[in-house]
Amino acid sequence: MTIKRMSPEELLALDRFNVDEGNPHIHVDKTLCARCQSRPCLVVCPARCYQLKDAQVAFEYAGCLECGTCRVLCSDKGVTRWDYPRATFGVTFRNS
Amino acid sequence: MPGIFIYSEDPRLAQQLLTPALELKKDLRQPVVALTTDPEAASILAALGADRVVVLRSALTSPEALAPAVAQLLAKEGAQVVLVGGTLRGKHLAAHAAAVLKAGLATDARHLALSDGRLVARRMLYAGLAVSDEELTLPALATIPPRTFPVPTQAPNPGVVENLDVLGDPRMTVFSSTPVQGEGVDITTAVRLVAVGRGFGHKEDLGLARDLAGALKADLACTRGIAEDEHWLPIERYIGISGQTVRPELYLATGLSGQVQHMVGCREAKVIVAVNKDERAPIFEMADYGIVGDLYTVLPLLTAALNKN
Amino acid sequence: MPKLLVCYKWVLDEQDIKIRPDDLSLDASRAKGKLSDFDRNAIEEASLIMEAQGGTVDALTYGLPTVKASVKDVLSRGPSRLLWIGDPAADQADAYVIANVLAAAIRKAGPYDLILCGEGSSDLFYQQIPARLAALLELPCVSFVQKLTLEGPVLTATRSLGDGTEEVRVTGPAVVSVLGEINKPRIPSLKQVLGASKKPSEELPLAGLGLTEAELEPKALRRAPRGFLMNRKNIIYKDADPAANVGKLVASLEAEGLRG
Amino acid sequence: MSEEDFDVIVAGAGPAGSACAYTLAKAGKNVLLLERGDSAGAKNVSGGRLYAYALDLVDPDLRGRAPLQRRIVREQVMLLDGARATTLDHGDYGDAAGPQSYSVLRAPLDEWFASEVEAQGGTLACGMRVDGFLEENGRIVGVKVGEDDMRCGTVVAADGVNSCLGRQAGLFGDVAPATVGLGVKETIELPEAVISQRFGVKNGEGAARVALGCTDGISGGGFLYTNTDSVSLGLVLNPGQVARRGRPIQDLWQDFKLHPALAGLLEGGVSLEYGAHLVPERGYHGLPRNLHRPGLVVAGDAGQFGINTGLILRGMDLAMVSGLAAARAILETTGPDAVGPAYLTQLETLALLPTMRVYAECHGLFELSRLFGAYPALANEALATLFSVDGRTPPPMLTQLWQVVRSHVSLGQMLSDAWKGFRSV
Lengths: 96, 309, 260, 425
Hints:
The complex is a heterotetramer of chains A (96), B (309), C (260) and D (425). Chain A has 96 residues and is of the alpha+beta class. Chain A has helices at 8-13, 30-35, 41-44, 69-73, and strands at 16-18, 26-28, 50-53, 56-59, 79-82, 90-92.
């Protein structure tokens, strides 16, 4: 065991999540995202919740670390709603 | 008279219990006594090596109703080791008997041995995350999951069969029972399995998994959620800590994340394959091969590819 | 109006337990406590009965002295009173000892019309306490219940037993063990959490339960557990083109002799 | 007007919320502390250093009971470039009677602090997200949590840097990209004795390290704090520049983590957790114009109280002081309308705003892009040149150095940076 390069998935697998299935806390408007040129979300999201699939921005809230960076940086305001997850859901940090 | 006692309401499981019982007999040098309610099962158990078979004759024959009478009998006979078939009914009976005998009980024991006059039973903790050996002072009980041991071969000298009239506990009335709508499939013997989980949005979508199973000549299995919450598949197909345990050559898991409670039931499969859209789903850590992708896209492609040629 | 009791266990959260890869021993040093999964269902079921029919729900637990930390969580889920027994030796207790302690506490605090338990605990999953309790208290036990109706003293239940279901009836008092599918446990609301702090909770000292030394001596000694690690190939295909992934997987299956 | 359920409701059980609720509860107020995580600290990530004066200011008894990791006795600065590193190490090897700071982990720290609030008679409710406010005649008179309404005299919004509540109350708009840093962090487990040995400290004592030149030229830096039996290792980066650079933040992060100069410190470590958080770092000029309205005050990260001088990052201490200021304002005034102005006065009295004014221009340093690339590289190359001996006749030392400098920056750039840097501090 030692320190090694880890994929985003491996990094997130270190954390505990209680996903609020069917109840996303972030809403993304795909039509606005389709028009967006800069797409900062693809690189700034530390959980890589935003990924390019078929030239479209695909969003998955399950591994969200609730930092808010996507909302703050979103250039075309495709992030139409950003809440904290409902109480008791989302990430739980034990050692940070 | 002290002895090694076995009981299961499931005749097949009762026969399997003889294997560890006969093994323990070598160390303990006590007779193996089988308890049953079924005279037919009794003669088979006697032929397979039980030194004595006691046929319990009672108007009420469910393990729950028999539990007090069995407990009394075990106490009277001075049973030293009691092995009970690990069905839910069997666990109910075993726990009741353990309380009456003031004895320890290892539920879901997967390995048994005697050491320094104690019964050592291996069982899982933390939903399968770990295993631990428990040392039980005698008298001790254990429940054994189905198919943990094989049925022993015929013994040279069949044991004796005797009858005993007992009183069943009448306090709980069973006024209706619905057996699982069996399809005649025993997935525990399946060589290949396609397992489905909550990644399937609708019952109709399971057709994708059925098609794939067809192409692989596999049977369909599922998670607890699909069987017990959605009732999309019968409970006999549910793999997991309180469901079936399987050891197929191929276990293809799709639309399930790989919770340890499920994986406990399939982790002895020879090859595990995962199809899941979430790259960080724990199933990929437990898989030999995997595809990261939407099952609705991947499954039809995979079925088609397998059907080609 | 029914007087209900629900037994629960405060366990280490298995998600926080790590396996040390060098010797497969378990590292629970960073693990927090939680209410055992199926006990949430038992508490919910008892609370639903009380909310529909009136009466009271006592919650009872036996554990390490730290079990006191569970009081707020449990009471916010509905029970009207909480009784806890703290014992520094509780982490060594087996089902024999746990059942003896709970039965003694029930004799002291009871009688109850109905005693509910979860099917088994998330940590040891003994699945023994309900039937043991019933035997010790000389009550009927209805195990593995997925549906429950209480009308006066008459309890009607659907049991789910793996090979089928059955509908049963007993006249209380009785012990019932519930399955996870019996209900969906609530997420306590603010008012429920605030209400919890006004509800009574008290420690039942172990010494006051009249248990003999023998009754507190475990029959089963747990040797140090070892983690179960899967060793798999972990060959994951994640090409952007699904067809490419499928092609590679089919080739792998072929290589394993698992095709056709 | 219906009866109040509580004198004060505090949203968020971080350092600001708990400092506020603790002070109020200790003074006999009926206070409700709400936390959206399963336990206090469950949603929180920070680099991990607490300046102890803030805890002492709230109550001098607290420090002895707090789950502090190690007292920081060594301050280190690393300048990184490629595989090179230059490390500056400062320590006071005397009896260190000066101001103290400690490494902390938020889950244990915040959970402990919230339990101290309960011990003072405050009410803590975890697993509660405040969804909105109750308003009457333009005045905030309580909060909505799920289906439940809860009334009170004053609401303290200590709900973190994203402050959904402050925005909902109309006090300020969303966080501007230029005012925050994006922090990512891993907590890496190592045996206590190993950490003490590698960092040359006794058990109970620890090191804090900042690193420059590890950000691919992006404004920001790395940090490392030694905890009792883990280290907190992370990066804080300007998110806008990350976006423009186009390299995923995880890649930048993993590059830093795997820098050869850190390998010996981390060898054998096990990653325990990965977290990310926004950090208010614009300082005084980043403060929202409005921090209160009748019935509501905003404290902690929600009020954007943060200082980043490049060498030190302050957030938790300012959060505690602002929470204390809010509590004192509530205690010394009657009627909710007076609380807000009294809060601002307390922020002055408790030296929070004056401190932030002193560092107000510090953020200018972050506009010196060469600070994050060229200058760390220059320092490393200069030292490498001075230390390298190959047996040939070297050019005069000053000539050598001048060549190194000129290869990284022009004289004009240096003068301009020096002037900007001077103005910033």
